[in-house]
Fold this sequence. Notes:
4 iron, 4 sulfur cluster binding, NAD(P)H-quinone oxidoreductase subunit I, iron-sulfur, metal-binding
Amino acid sequence: xxxxxxxxxxxxxxxxxxxxxxxxxxxxxxxxxxxxxxxxxxxxxxxxxxxxxxxxxxxxxxxxxxxxxxxxxxxxxxxxxxxxxxxxxxxxxxxxxxxxxxxxxxxxxxxxxxxxxxxxxxxxxxxxxxxxxxxxxxxxxxxxxxxxxxxxxxxxxxxxxxxxxxxxxxxxxxxxxxxxxxxxxxxxxxxxxxxx
Length: 196
Ligand code: SF4
Ligand code: SF4
């Protein structure tokens, strides 16, 4: 009989504690107001911590195509398309034609960041990537406008969708108006934006 009363008391106290936690959470939510009232997403993105690991930032104008990031990636989700080329200074090097990260596989571990010898890839503060199809999760940073790939513009679905129609990188080393590798277009010289 004593056990029966002890179990009953424990059950009542446990349920009361659970309800108390639920009530406190509900009151906090009521005080904070709804999520969209507080953050007005997407116009005002959610503030993130200084060392937050969001979607990458990649500087096409500095990348030397050394593959160290791709080798370090534990899930092999970085695909680099490059060709050996001679620059305007006569030196040989790689021209990066594509730098794709498959975000259906990326786990945001940042292991690709540290090996980069020229610091042209790091984890940015963008925390969302909306896309119209699953293909939109594969982002070719060499086809994005530089301000979206490296600068402060968000990795929005429009620039990612538009990048799918390009067959040449948005920037190549060389003179102003240098033709794209396939000779199909004359690329404008784009000023390198400040890092985000
Ligand atoms: S964050 Fe990790 S999983 Fe994602 S591309 Fe870099 S190394 Fe690969
Ligand atoms: S490690 Fe850096 S320089 Fe080398 S391919 Fe990756 S991003 Fe480019």
